[in-house]
Amino acid sequence: MNKRLKCFARDIKQQVKALYLASRDPRTPIAAKCLVVIVVAYALSPIDLIPDFIPVLGYVDDLILLPFGIYLAVKLIPEPLWHEFQTQVEKSSINLPKSWPAVLAIGLFWCMSLAAIVMHYGALSRG
After folding, report:
1. Given 19, 46, 48, 124, which residue has the most CB atoms within 10 angstroms?
2. Which residues does UniProt call coiled coil (predicted)?
């Protein structure tokens, strides 16, 4: 079981790297690029849709949402082009970028969302 999980995690990482290449290639269709950007940003985001510290549900996004997003993005990329990206990932060590402005933007989004929820429920409780 542990070996299967390690293989699964490695495959996801390889696919995210291939999607990153797809997002930067002009031959990738626009619809695919839009979805790829969302999936790669979510995969690289330090903040999850459902925080990992929540029992069971915390890992649902990592185990279901991310692979589903990858699946949809891959379906939008022409098959020969997708195989080319996978080959590039296998042949070279591609490092994904780390963007502190993106981390700050995502953190700000979550803080604003939390504040909006608190304000909404505070207004409901007052009447």
Report:
1. 19
2. none
